[in-house]
Amino acid sequence: MNKTILVTGASRGIGKAIALRLAKDGYDIVLHCRSKIEDAQAVAEQIKELGRGVRILQFDLSDRAQACTILEQDIEDFGAYFGVVCNAGVARDNAFPAMPGEEWDEVLRTNLDGFYNVLHPVIMPMIRRRKPGRIVTMSSVSGEMGNRGQVNYSAAKAGIIGATKALSVELAKRKITVNCVAPGIIETDMTEHLPLEEALKMVPMQRAGSTSEVAGTVSFLMSEDAAYITRQVISVNGGMF
Q1: With contact defined as beta carbons under 8 Å apart, do 58 and 10 qualify?
Q2: Is 138 helix (H, G, I), strand (E, B) or coil?
Q3: Beta carbons within 8 Å of 215's beta carbon, 6+ residues apart
Q4: Can 27 be counted among the known catalytic residues?
Q5: Which domains does the chain show, CATH number per domain?
Q6: For residue 49, what are the contacts with CB-CB under 8 A and spacing of at least 6?
Q7: Catalytic residue among 27, 81, 153, 228
């Protein structure tokens, strides 16, 4: 197949599950991490065991110049990507009246500015391939319905939905699909601090989702079967709304 997919935030949690699933699907993987290089290296070893090519890029999504420099160099060295999964993100939960400006800025810069900082350097090389491509962004149930204590996170994730839909229109004629996955309550280290028993009362299926279920959705959107699907938000939330 020799198609390469960049997965951001791939050292753990949902990103790790996505990277491993796509490697099993036959793609070569570019793993991105910000700080947990040892975790990313462990994921890379698992991908190598699957017989796929893998390399690691380490940079801060909120640093536009750094992201651009590293991504442009990787593309110059190895060629344009077939697909990108914009998964990396952070949450800094707080009641809005008590939320410091720094928490607002960090969440918006990483989650929403990260959309631009990752995709802007890679889009034109993807277009110049003159072949189909795939982009999957990661929003959240918070971006669809808003969550108490997550005004910053909800704003960023709602922005990702809007940006995804707009970008999909620009790239549709190029046969590059752009879709968004919006997970609900998923068992990861980001949800460990949440009172899940209370939160699951909002979920008709009465359970948290797994990272593999999110990864399976991304796998489908990357596949040929999803070639006519673009500008969509796929909710993986057990029926929360």
Answers
A1: no
A2: strand
A3: 14, 17, 18, 20, 21, 22
A4: no
A5: 4-236 (3.40.50.720)
A6: none
A7: 153
